[in-house]
Specification:
Strand content of chain A: 5-15%
Largest interface: A-D, 47 and 47 residues
Order of helices and strands of chain A: EHHEHEHHHEHHHH
Oligomer: homotetramer
Largest sheet of chain A: 4 strands, antiparallel
Radius of gyration of chain A: 22 Å
Strand order of the largest sheet of chain A: 1-2-4-3
């Protein structure tokens, strides 16, 4: 899995600070530019603390994601306040086996071998169907959830906070949790004040949305 | 594939007619109730003709959909102005082979046989992984796109019109086109005036969004 | 202010219960219909308790609202997961003074008199501009925030819960709080299990989003 | 009215070109970076021509807007695929008359004088209510639609194209049309290929959504 932040709003922390100031002052937005670094920080801290997160919607972040499974992307695209562009299985011929291996399988030689054999078999069947002149868009019906795919996703900072809350949780499915953690690491680099406390709800709000009392992170 | 309309806004055509009248009159909304059938029809016809479709958002439609592939649902959930509830592959054990067969495959005995054999092989591998104590949420990585799933979807009438425009198109992937056509048939039964002219853009707007001049439905 | 529930999804509580069951079972959605009242209640209670509220999006509610101010509607339409149809000030001639009076003004004869006089003056000016052949859409620039308007709004149950959380709060502006409380009362009549615990976050989550320690409802 | 583009996605045209390429190729998104200027242009042109505009959602644009009326912002915030931060009339004291004058009024001395007098009268009443200890959030009920306000808005490129289609139309209300035209001019400077053909539907699609045959721009 590769995750790279390939674009984002210029001034991702200044714009939200300007927006928050605008709502409570007479200063014209074109002059809000003059907010000092220190003033910006103070405003942002307040915004995050009070969860007045509508202002952080002004900053968006675009990630290039590769070598993830279709299982992952099927979950990912359920987030509706986001924009996606995904590699098409209708138009792209996928005749080489490229697939994701879950850690629970790779950690054991025997299960890893069984899994790899399964994948080889599946791709043989896929290629046989192509040889039988079945169109790629139908032959792909045999391809597994594990099939690797590429996707670009853009979310604004508020939608990202929600994404991290749900998907950095230990109870989330392992692959999307790994993705969420990598995205969070990338986002923090360019907007550290917005994302410094981002994470699962047990960290951000000290409540467990899943009510999993046996989780090691369950808030005390 | 089974598609059933299992719920919808009471008065799916009266509410939009009331809404359209409200925007241009002094009548209080609680009195708009008194619009005659004939007045409602006239207003609705105007709304559809002028594509002032924001008023039809007041009517929503809920469909129960079963025995469709995960390929289909991965496309379906890309529609963001909609609500979805889908059978989870993490929590539901799917040890019996249940899968969709594309028509291009089923129409020929030889390809159908090859496909069925593939499916049997895949499910054998899936069950072997389960026996090896791999959790269901990881074993499912071998399951194919063809795996059957169930989903409930709710869309408002405006979002449905857009869905039909894109997915009833001959260029759409066959399975989601079949779904779209079945949903349109169901929706027409309870809101005939809203959906009577619904369909692909070649029918509704006389333009081909795909610019496919070789399509039999290409507008003349 | 008049608020009336004029339409909603048939079976507003059954559909979410069916949706919640579908996600964790092999039962086909068309058979979920057979859930008993008791089973439905149990499922819904769990859903609300765990805040797995995506399933309640399948139920939508449409309200006719009249005699509210443009101040209120300007706030109301900021809710984006909703559909609105509002009386147009461009096309509807509003030559009679119809306006909302804030309680802080009406409770005192002197301020009430000053306010009424202001309104009469404003409408005289508005009518003078119309007589001078200024188009209604420009003359209305003098009309006050208090001007009465009518609006229809549709929200799904999840969006409504969020609306009630923000707008039933004692810190919310009085007019939209009054609206929210009336909408909640109406919604409870037809979906009592979904809305029984709805209200401001101090009631639903025992946290004060506004951090107002001096509020009489501040959670202890 | 002042309109200034104060932030936007870095590489607003490169990201959509990368996204469009990703969907139809095996190139990993982290390598799409290497697209030449010429390749990018060719891809973007195709995207705009075929209206495959989902990929341009990856680019967002943030505008600071000042000295517009509350009439305008009430219309503006109806666009739901957007993020807004607006100056609050609850918390900001607006005791100086600051208001917008429609051209149909300013072009004539007599109507201009009548309008200015009205505004002075209104603000006198507003200040009187404040002196009577009415809270600002209630006194503002007398303030006119013309009252100036400041707002920041962020939209992605696809949502902007839709905004321009509706609001650059000659049939749109004059103030929001002026805003739309200024926003379009700003957006074009940084994303000329995306916005070069943006504008009302008579220009972009050669159809008149309003069916106004008497409009000078009605497509022939």
């Amino acid at each position: 899995m590769n995750v790279k932040l390939i674009g984002y709003t210029s001034n991702p922390e200044k714009l939200p600070a300007m927006a928050a100031t605008l709502t409570h002052s007479k200063i014209k937005p074109e002059n809000l530019n003059k907010l000092s670094e220190k003033e910006q920080s103070a405003v942002l801290e307040q915004v995050i603390k009070l969860r007045h997160t509508s202002v952080i919607e002004h900053a968006s972040f675009t990630f290039a994601i590769s070598d993830v499974s279709r299982s992952l992307t099927h979950q990912l695209v359920r987030h509706r306040i986001a924009s996606f562009s995904q590699q098409s299985q209708r138009y792209v011929n996928l005749n080489e086996p490229n697939y994701v291996v879950p850690p629970s399988i790779s950690k054991n030689k025997k299960t890893k071998k069984a899994y790899d054999d399964t994948m080889e078999t599946i791709w043989n069947h896929y290629n046989t169907l192509l040889e039988m002149k079945i169109p790629a868009e139908d032959a792909r019906y045999v391809l597994p959830n594990a099939t690797q795919t590429n996707i670009m996703v853009t979310m604004n900072a508020r939608s990202l906070l929600n994404f991290f809350e749900l998907r950095c949780c230990l109870h989330a499915q392992w692959e999307i949790r790994m993705l969420a953690n990598k995205m969070l690491r990338e986002a923090k680099k360019v907007a550290p004040r917005i994302f410094q406390h981002a994470g699962p709800s047990c960290q951000t709000k000290r409540i467990c949305l899943e009510k999993k009392k046996d989780c090691p992170l369950y808030p005390k």
